[in-house]
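Sequence only, no structure available. Ideas?
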Amino acid sequence: MKKSVPVAFVRSMKAVALPLVIAIVAASAVPAMAAPDTAARGLLPASVRDSGVLTVGMPLDYEPYNFMGADGKPHGLDVDIFDGIAETLGLKPQINRMGFASIIPAVSGARIEVGMSGIGIMPARLKVVSFARYSVATNGLVVASGNPAKINTQNACGHTIALEKGTSPELYWEGAADDCVKQGKPKMSLLVLDGEGPQMLAIQSGRAEAAGVGYATAVVVAQHSGGKLAVADGGPALGSTLDCGVAVSRDNPQLGKAIVAALKVMVANGSYDAIFKKWGLSALRSDPAFVAEAQ
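Reply:
I predicted one. Tokens follow.
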């Protein structure tokens, strides 16, 4: 078993200083609504159903989950999933742009209905909010295009991995390196650097054969590299998965259950998988479920 990882790569410990809250009506960026699902809509609290609007807090600075595009509109996995949830529930989606650290307090304080930004479902958070699970987060590797070293995330023993100092991927790959030694496999070399940029430069200069980052980050880095970098074979790294969810108030479990019902409708009609495929994150899909603090 590998070490338990305090997954900061899903922004568990990051606070984004964005004091300005901007309301954005996401419906303008999506196709016209289809007919809502009657059963899922029937689970909504009357106050939300009667308002006709579902509000969410997102930073819109976290590609590929949620970010502002060159067209000035919100884009990303979370944006598309949220739009789908609202459409399924027959509600108009509204995004409030706010700093990551402000999302859970805003949800628990009933200033917004839900919060999304690849938020990890962690015990400390479950004391404040509940979650509608919709995804997972995990670690991955970035390699040079063509993967000349033939590195696989499931077995990187014998290879040199560039890591950013102080991150969860650093902790994860330190554990993986220890496992290589314990299993009598070739030793893994870890090159610890300051910043993600130096990690990628290490690959391009040949100092490292791969860079350890969050899996979603690996997808984005590869997409923006002009064909110079790629995601390593093997998918997400073993033993580093954390559930992620839509945060809802603990005082409003009915809304969380309605969102889970909407997600299950999206799974059944194929739109859920289509969204994950669109963003290259099919490996991070999950079975929707309502998660509250254990009693």
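The chain is about 30% helix and 25% strand.
Hope that gets you unstuck.
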